[in-house]
Amino acid sequence: MATISKQGRRQRKESPEATELLVLELQAIHNAESQLARVVPRLSKAIESEKLGQMMDERLEEGERIIKEIEGVFDELEESPGRRRNVAAEGLINDAREHVQEIEAGPSLDAVLIGSIQKTEHYCIAAWGTARALGEAVGQKTAVQAMDRALKEGGKFDERLTALAVKEITPALLAQGSEAEEGGEGGRGRQGSGGSKRRASA
Question: Of 23, 21, 26, 20, which Cα lies nearest the Cα of 127?
Answer without folding.
Answer: 26
